[in-house]
Amino acid sequence: MEGMFRVMLEYLKLEKMEVSGLSGNIHSAMIQDIFNEFNDAIAYLQSKQYDALDPENDEYTKENALFREHVQDWDTRLASIICQNFDECSNPESVFKLIEMFGSLLDRDIIKDAFDLKYPALA
Q1: Consecutive sets of 10 residues in the chain, 123 residues long: mean pLDDT of each?
Q2: pLDDT at 32
Q3: Is the distance from CB of 60 to CB of 50 less than 8 angstroms?
Q4: Cα dihedral angle (38, 40, 42, 45), rounded to 10 degrees?
Q5: Residues 6+ positions from 37 with CB-CB distance below 8 Å
Q6: Rounded to the nearest 5 degrees, what angle is found at the Cα of 100, between the Cα atoms of 74 and 118?
Q7: 90 to each of 83, 87, 94, 96, 108, how far by Cα in Å?
């Protein structure tokens, strides 16, 4: 459950996120699509009437596993968007703005693995 709350805190940052650059409008729309899918998944989980703290409740375990699959998909899509934005940055200042904007999302495993490959380009 703790992991789910961490995901919620990080993904709520996407609500008002807008990126600039050559594909800024497209990437911003893609980020909003991910945020909307996230909101739909959270609303679905909130509508459930089971006790998530009941260790014998298989329904919660199944729903949590499905939610984690969605998170992996969203992380993969975000990683792609972030890396594409990095590639479109024309100067170090815009790269640092990108890093600041996405902040702790860059620490998520899938996103981190993809974005870490971009750091050598700063040298």
Answers
A1: 86 92 91 97 89 79 92 98 93 92 95 93 75
A2: 97
A3: yes
A4: -140
A5: 70, 74
A6: 70
A7: 13, 8, 7, 11, 25
Give residue 15's pLDDT.
94
- Cα angle 119, 121, 123; round to 5: 90
- The answer to whether 79 and 39 have CB atoms below 8 angstroms apart is no
pTM beyond 0.85: yes
Name the one residue in this structure whose structure tokens are 């996103």: 111
CA Rg, the chain, in Å?
16
pLDDT for res 7: 93
CA–CA gap between residue 26 and residue 32 (Å, rounded): 10
